[in-house]
Each structure stands twice: as structure tokens, then as C-alpha cells.
Amino acid sequence: MTRASLDKQPHEVAAMFDDVAAKYDLTNDVLSLGQARLWRRAVAQSVDARPGERVLDLAAGTATSSLPFVEAGAFTVPCDFSLGMLREGKRRHPWMPFTGGDATRLPFADDTFDAVTISFGLRNVSDVDAALAEMLRVTRPGGRVLICEFSHPAWAPFRTVYTEYLMRALPPVARRVSSSPDAYVYLAESIRDWPDQPALAARLQQAGWSRVAWRDLTGGIVALHRAFKARNPGEPVRAER
């Protein structure tokens, strides 16, 4: 079994997700106590895909996260760098245009997509700033990005309880339901190591995104960050709360 390190070497992360592909969606539902479905619904509402739009879903895995955009009528490209995830997704949804790709070097032309989204994947990228810049490059002017990622509960007592769950309860539960429980030890460590909501918002601004805003889900266990690509090159970058 493969467990990636917090250095997030791409081959280690890809191999780790190859190992968990078959039971990935089920395991997430169990470990999140059913919240994962609510988070996916919130992502779909925030992306607000429209008929005829082009949506790039990064770290799409088996394309569970992509289906709401397809159902909304958008042409949707599920993209991932785990071949195991792509194979499992293609087995389930053979009609979808699964594409292999690294978030730091996307295989798409400039200004291609109306919306780019990534759910629970940015945390696993080796160079987050390069990925944010690549997302900006492939988004059309006026288009949007939506990032759904684990974050940090704002209320200190809840944050303490949540951290205890991550480091003590999550690995034993993962051993019961996952095909590669060591991957979920990495999951807990990477969540604890991830920047908080304002820090990620600042990195989006530094990458050139405008109108950066976020909202918390489940008390801040997860945060949705949304931003837009300026329509004009000289448009100022600014934040919203």
C-alpha cells in the first residue's frame, strides 16, 4: 500500500489514489458521517453551471463531483492525475471525457473554460500557487473558480474536538472501510497542515484572481472559496467576504 508524504511528490500521491480508487466514494461517505454528499451539493450550487457552459473538474477522481454539472447541461471535463481513479471513473461512466492531467501543467488552451472547480484535491498538489495560476490561465475572462477543501473550524473548542477525531478516530475507521487505510493517515496529516481560510484567499489573490470570497461548511471543517478572472487585464484584484 502507498502512503504519500507531506512533500506531496506527484508519483506518490497518484499511486496512493490509485490504491483507493475502487472504494474511494464509499469511504468518504463513511468517514465524513454523510457530510460529503452535502458538500458536493454545495459545490454544485456555488459553481452554478449553465447549459452550454464548459466546466473543468480537477481532481475529479471517478467523476462523482462532475455529474451535477453534466446534469445542469454543461460540457464537463473530469480531469485527474491518478490513472487508477480515471479507470474506475471510465468504468462507471464510459461516455464522459476523462482526461489525465497535472493541475500544475494543465493540458488545455488559454481561456477555455467558463468555470474551473476542484474538490478536496488542491491540498494534494505539490505546488499550490502554480495550480492556482494554471486554473486562471485556462479560465475565460469573466469566468470563475470554485475550490472546496478541508479547512479549520473557527470555534476553538470545536477545532480541538475535530483535530482529535482526525488524528485518533479517523485512522481506525479507515482500516475498517478502506482498501488502503494508510492513505487516510496522510489525509488527516495533510488537513492539519493545510492553510486556513484567509490564507488560501490571499494565495488566490496573489495568483491574480479577483473578487475572492469564501464561506464555511459544517462549522469550517470545509470551506468553499470562489473567485473570478478579470474581464480586462487592468481590472484591480480585490477581495470580498
Question: Could you please describe the fold and organization of this structure?
Answer:
Strands 3-2-1-4-5-7-6 form a 7-stranded mixed sheet, with helices on both faces. The chain is built from 9 helices and 7 strands, in the order αααβαβαββαβαααββ. With 241 residues, it is of the alpha/beta class. It has helices at 10-20, 24-31, 35-47, 67-71, 83-92, 128-138, 156-177, 182-193, 197-206, and strands spanning 54-58, 75-80, 99-100, 113-119, 139-150, 210-217, 222-228. Its EC number is 2.1.1.163. It catalyses: a 2-demethylmenaquinol + S-adenosyl-L-methionine = a menaquinol + S-adenosyl-L-homocysteine + H(+).
Sum this structure up briefly.
By secondary structure, this protein is α/β, with parallel strands linked by helices. The chain has helices at residues 10-20, 24-31, 35-47, 67-71, 83-92, 128-138, 156-177, 182-193, 197-206, and strands at residues 54-58, 75-80, 99-100, 113-119, 139-150, 210-217, 222-228. The longest helix has 22 residues, at 156-177.
Main sheet attributes: strand count, strand direction, barrel closure: 7 strands, mixed
- Quick check: average pLDDT? 85
| Strand order across the largest sheet | 3-2-1-4-5-7-6
Q: Could you tell me the radius of gyration in angstroms?
A: 17 Å
Q: Which outline best applies?
A: globular
Sketch the topology as an H/E string, one letter per element.
HHHEHEHEEHEHHHEE
Strand content is 15-25%
- Terminal-residue CA separation: 42 Å
Provide a count of the helices. Answer: 9
What are the segments in which pLDDT stays under 50 over at least 5 consecutive residues? none
Share of helix among residues? 40-55%
The structure class reads alpha/beta
Count the strands? 7
